[in-house]
Structure formats: structure tokens, C-alpha cells
Design a protein that fits this description.
- By secondary structure, the chain is mainly beta.
- The chain contains six helices and 40 strands.
- The protein has a 22-stranded antiparallel beta barrel. Strands 3-8-9-6-7 form a five-stranded mixed sheet. A three-stranded antiparallel sheet has the order 13-39-38, with no helix packed on it.
Length: 674
Amino acid sequence: MITPKTVRRMTLAGVTCLLAIHCPTASGADGGPPGKSADDVGDLTLEQLVNVQVTSVSKKETDLFTSPAAIYVITQEDIRRSGMTSIPELLRLVPGMDVARIDANHWAVSVRGFNDQYANKLLVLVDGRTVYSPVTAGVFWNVQDMPLETIDRIEVIRGPGATLWGANAVDGVINIITKSARETQGGVATVTYGTEDQPSTTVRYGGQAATNLFYRVYLTYFNRENFSDSTGQDAADGWNSARGGFRIDWDASAANNFTLQGDYYNNRAGEAVDETSLTPPFVNRVNFIDDDQGGNVLGRWTHIFSDTSQLNLQLYYDHSEQGDAPIVIKNDTYDLDFQHRFALGTRQDIVWGAGYRYLATETSPSFFAALTPPNEREQLFSTFIQDDVTLVRDRLHLILGSKFEHNDSTGLEIEPSVRLLWTPTKKQTVWAAVSRAVRTPSDLEGGLRQNRSVVQPPAGPPVLVSVFGNPGLESEVLTSYELGYRIKPVESLSFDLAAFYNVYDRFITTVQGTPFFEATPVPHVVVPLTFENSSDAQTYGTEISGEWRVTGNWRLTASDSFLQAHQNPQPSYDNNPQNQFQIRSYLDLSHHFELDGAVFYVDPIDPILGNATTRIPSYVRTDLGVSWRPTGSLEIGVYGENLTDGGHPEFTSYKTAVITEIPRSVMVRVTWHF
């Protein structure tokens, strides 16, 4: 059996072998891939890499190296060179992020514990627009399929971010930031074909309509193959999607910038559902096709008063019709957000803001699952303030703030935080934080009835196990304690360490109630499982990552995470791998070739399968990619994922007993800039 110690030994041996390879320098005609600008992350020095600007920690630009939070940035260079084709797969690159693929079009994604198909403690945003579903308290990852070429970076905060971002930013925040239209001038066409993508195509074009007025449009389509289950049978989970969108950026003056952007998508994805029945055989496996469609439009105005003062006003509308077999969820969101940053004297930097959100939700009922009421209307009012106080110039900062929100379900929520940032030298950062965050109950937890399973006793009517919502639920509350340290001992090497201890109160779990009798549709006994704030939990762990610029054209990154979770009462399942480890290599070869590889190790888990649990073994995933740029406008790449394993499971579905195998895959990608 492969253990973390074995993987570490394998990795150390691999790194030793790699160090013995002669790496040509980046001089002369064969020194590296052509067509890269000076801004490409792959060409930056480590000094520039660790000082990448991020905005998610403080809602203003700060250096990643001196940010008082556990933050990681997936850059456009990471996206291009990884060979990965979806956002959830890209999140595997983040230290401590738990990404488990359920089938061809579903993922479970979380950080610092409590992973699930609808992991409910992770807030996800795209250019400031939330894609966290209030119905399921999670993210439908299979419709977050924007062209990866348009993404500038993905900023991931491990740990609470509720003071700035609000409820449900409990264990982390993912902020997907796309490029401005100014940065995407000209055309790009990408075609991907392989064992999974059959095929995928993206076409994007950007132009300039007038002085300081830039635009881009894009179209993308993919068709992805079915996976197989553990018995070798077709899992009927293939999917295809078409999406189009636009973005307009207008620099009206030196002080005023406007952005208008929007997307529309149509998605079809298969999934298996074990539908419960009160007549034999009591369960019927049905292969559904989820039809998903939706669109959004977002407008943003930025006014710059000075280098230390600016104002942002953002408004967006989002509509979605999400198939979640066998129900359909329709959601309309209207959101207005105002933010103002200003300096108070020479030692205080204040950011404050206010927001309003209106949500309208409709759901279609079935015997398997139904919501009461089927139509919901909810309003959210919020305001926040955060003050960055310089205690010792260039050395010590105290960051204080809080979010204040009022929603129709749980009323007023207060989410404060205190952060301390110490930079004893230019090559060291120490930070500590104490934060409070809340996770509001979802519509499912408030009004669900899900008929989970049926048992026929030797005598008497069938026994139906059903999950019931509870409209009186309170928000889950997290109190988090974090400590972090970053160091750059030499110019070519940096390390990032984070430790945390989280305490959860009013944790929502199901509690068995008193059985009762129902006469329709046929006489049966119901055993109710009702959502209650009946538990508490604690998690603690560490996350360590490092980056080494071995030579001018070879870069290594590695990370290791440890997580321990305790819940009272202790559940029978465990969705969280205790250890995860990865190492990645980016190598620029001569003659404009690139060789990139990665190894990922994940510990075993014991998730729920039906009314019991099952063991998902540990696994090692090995990825390898080779790309070539014969000209500055053309790139050809061949990529393989999970190359050393013919197939393995990573997670279970709550809808079916089918366990899908994640297969080995190979693809070819051609990108043409015109």
C-alpha cells in the first residue's frame, strides 16, 4: 500500500534525478519559447513571483508575500502549462485544497475539511459575482466552464474571509479574476482533442472600438466522454456545453474606468440517480440528463481619487436554470455592491462598503426530493469596514474589521476579524489572525423532504427513511485561529507555512426523530431524519508549500498538508484526507519546447454510500505535458493525466450507489494566436 512516507521517498528520488539533468540556459535562438512577453509569469524572477499583486485578502492590491492570510495564486502560466481543462481540476494545484472528482461532470471541492458534492463552507466568486448556490449551499462546478484563456488568475484564500466577503466564506474564498479586454487584443483559437475531450473548441477575439474603449467576445464548446463505474459499465455521465460572452472596458479618463461583461451558457450533463419507490424493487436506477442554462451581466464603475483612495460601484444580474436530477432549480439574483477605500492620516488605510442582494428561487418537486415552499424570495443587506493600522512603519500592521449582514432566514450576522502582520525583514513575513464566520442554512436544509431509502420488514408496511428540512435552523458559527510564516532565504527559494485551529458551533447535522405513519401513495412508516444545530466540531492542521527556481529555465513547486477533524457526536463517515502532497516541475527546454510534470498524493477517505460508508483508497496521480511553440503565434501540446493509474475512485455521489472510476486520459491541444 502506498503511504505518504513512500510518496515522499519517491518524490525525493525523482527530484534528485531531475537535479542531475543538464538544463540549457535561456540564451541564443534556442533559449526558450518564443512569443512570451516580459509579463509572462513563467519568465518572472522569484522576487517578482512572490510579489504578485492580489486583491482578495484586503479588497485592495497587496503583495502576495506580505498578505496577512493563507493565500495562493494560480497564474495564467500555471493554467497554460498544467494541461488541465476545468476550474475544479485547476484547484488541485492549491496547497491543502481537497479536490475529489465524483464522475465526469461533478466534483467535491473544499479546503480545511467537510468536503462534499455541495461543500457548503467555501465561497466562490467570478469577478466579484458569487456562484455559491443558496439552494444547495455549494457550487455547481459543471457550469463554471468559462474559457481558461480569459482567466488572469485564481486567488484562493484558505481560511475565513467573511469580514470582507460575507456569509459562507467560512473555510475559504476562491476569487476567479478574468483579464481586462485591453489585455486580450487580437484573436485566439484553441482546439483540444483526446480521450475525454471530443473535442473542445474556444475562439476569442478582442479589439479596440475607440480611444481607450476595448472589447472582447468569445465562443466555446466542448463534448466530453462518459466515464465507467467500478464494474466497467458506462456511467452515463458525459456532458457537453456551449457558452458565449463579452467584455467591454472603457477608460473614460485617468480617474474613471467602466466595465460591462456578460455570459450565456447551455449545458447538458448525464448523471445516475437511485430513485426511491414504495413498491418492489424499492429502488430504480435512472440515467438523467440535466439541462442547464443561464446567463449573467455585470457592470462596474471605478473612480480613482488618488493613490490611496478609490470608489467602486458594481451591479450584476444572474439567472440560472440548473438541473439537479431529478429536480430543477431556477434562480434569479440581483446584486448591488458599493466600496470605498481611503487613507486616514499616514497610518490608517480604511476600506468600507455596503451591499444589497435580492434572490428569487423556484424548484420543481418529485417523490425523490421536494422543497417547501417551492418558491423562495430573500433579501440580504450588508455593510463592512476594515482598518489597516500601521503600528511600526514597514514592520508591523494591525488589521481590524467586521461584516454586518441581515438576511431573512437568520437575521443579523456579525463577522469580525483581527489580523496582525509583522515583516521583521524584507525576506520574512509573519501573520496571525482570529476570525468569526458564519454559514447560513441552505434552502434544502430549511425546507427539504428527500426520500432516501425504503426497507421492507418481514411483516408490516414498507419503512421509508426520509430527510426533512428545518425552517428554524440557525447559522453555523466558526471561530478560527491562524498563524502563518513566509520566508525567502535566498533569491531562488521561498517557503510558505500556515497553521490553523477551527472551532465550529451550531453545526448542522441530521437527527433521527419519532417514526410516523403515512397513508399515501401507499401505506408506509416514515423514519424521519431532521436537520438540527445539534453538533460541534474542531479541525486543525498545517499547510506547507515551497518554490525553488533551480535555474533560469527550471522551476519546482511542492506542498504538503495535514488535516485532523473531530465532530461531536462523531459521525461514521470521514470525507477528509488527512495528508495530501504534491510536487510540480516547469522546465523550459531548447528549440522552444517545454516539459511539465506533476505528482499528487491523496490519503484514503470513508465517505457515505447510501445508508452506510465505503472506503476510497489512497491514490497517486501523475501528470505529464510536452508543448512546443514553433512560432510566436502557434503552440502545440500533448498532455497526459493520471498516467500511472488506469482508474481509481475519488468520491461518492449522494444520489446513487454507483462509484465512478476516474480514468487515465491523454489529449492534444493546439492554440493559435492571430
